[in-house]
């Protein structure tokens, strides 16, 4: 594939350096400009001048840009790129709050540009395979989706709490795996590390299709865990996204409980367990390949800004629920659909 797309990267911090690495080896793309007011502390872009701002990046003549600056700066940078007619991938979450996310999504839609949000977990091989198998009916009716995302506090995070930094992954991937959005959320959060923002949250939710959800997220565990469990009438799929593993646990009763008097009772018993062999591609590389393809005309595998907006709605609902000790409903809003 010829190197015919000129890419720019804004932000060379902990996440930006990985974007730089992928962009420098991505087929059909040439990383031609990088920008960061703090320079290039990790040496992520050798041979390139580090530009001072987004305007300088635009002036370099890029076809698309990747935004990896802190969340509080997403709106201003993204709106500047939209005004300049630059296709853009914004790191998650799309914006700091709902109002800013709406402004970004509407600006890119109005300009007819490709806009996407960097939810890397969607491109994990375990979750890609999980979603496909669920869509193919392997679990039958879905009952529950539960996630656990735990670990130590990353010192680089200074502008948001654990909900906007980590739980946003779980809210996005759950709606995507189920192909259904959140109807209500109920959350409890706490602050134990002396920071202003929350560092631990427990979330219970209900999707529009009736699926119940549960999310345990924190920065207070002395071990790292990234698990997604989807339970349905025919069994459960367990995804470990750290190791890109997917295991199916069959409900042995699902195929045999056909006796007429018992037809109304759905029994459960332990059946076979199968651990699938997956092609372990790097999720970030797959994300970039999908965005490149979207710029070239195939937008079938990106996280749209409209989806990113729905996730920001869910994040804000979680924070409101924790603050008010109440169940919060998510208002429906036009155009907020999950990717088929």
From TrEMBL:
This is Dehydrogenase. Pfam families: GFO_IDH_MocA (PF01408), GFO_IDH_MocA_C3 (PF22725). It comes from Agrococcus terreus. Residues 6-119 form the Gfo/Idh/MocA-like oxidoreductase N-terminal domain. Signal peptide: none annotated. Residues 128-237 form the GFO/IDH/MocA-like oxidoreductase domain. It comes from the Bacteria. The keyword Membrane does not apply. Keywords: NAD.
């Amino acid at each position: 594939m010829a190197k015919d797309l000129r890419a720019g990267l804004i932000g060379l911090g902990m996440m930006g350096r990985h974007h730089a690495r992928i962009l420098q080896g991505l087929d059909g793309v040439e990383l031609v400009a990088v920008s960061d007011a703090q320079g290039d502390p990790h040496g992520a872009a050798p041979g390139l001048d580090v530009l001072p701002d987004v305007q300088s990046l635009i002036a370099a003549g890029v076809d698309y840009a990747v935004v990896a600056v802190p969340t509080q700066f997403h709106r201003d940078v993204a709106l500047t790129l939209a005004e300049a007619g630059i296709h853009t991938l914004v790191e998650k979450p799309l914006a700091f709050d709902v109002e800013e996310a709406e402004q970004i999504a509407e600006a890119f839609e109005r300009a007819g540009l490709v806009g996407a949000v960097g939810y890397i977990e969607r491109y994990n091989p375990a979750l890609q395979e999980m979603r496909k198998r669920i869509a193919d009916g392997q679990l039958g009716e879905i009952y529950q989706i539960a996630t656990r995302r735990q670990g130590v506090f990353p010192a680089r995070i200074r502008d948001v709490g654990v909900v906007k930094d980590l739980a946003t992954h779980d809210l996005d991937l759950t709606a995507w795996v189920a192909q259904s959005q959140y109807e209500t959320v109920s959350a409890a959060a706490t602050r134990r590390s002396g920071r202003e923002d929350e560092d631990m949250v427990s979330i219970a939710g209900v999707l529009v299709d009736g699926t119940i959800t549960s999310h345990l997220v924190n920065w207070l565990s002395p071990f790292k865990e990234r698990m997604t469990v989807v339970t349905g009438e025919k069994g459960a799929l367990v995804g470990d996204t750290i190791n890109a593993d997917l295991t199916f646990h069959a409900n042995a009763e699902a195929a045999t409980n056909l006796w007429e008097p018992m037809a109304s009772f759905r029994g459960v018993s332990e059946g076979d367990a199968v651990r699938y062999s997956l092609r372990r591609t790097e999720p970030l590389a797959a994300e970039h390949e999908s965005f490149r393809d979207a710029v070239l005309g195939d937008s079938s595998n990106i996280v749209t800004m409209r989806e990113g907006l729905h996730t920001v709605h869910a994040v804000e609902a979680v924070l409101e629920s924790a603050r008010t000790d109440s169940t919060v409903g998510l208002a429906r809003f036009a155009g907020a659909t999950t990717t088929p």
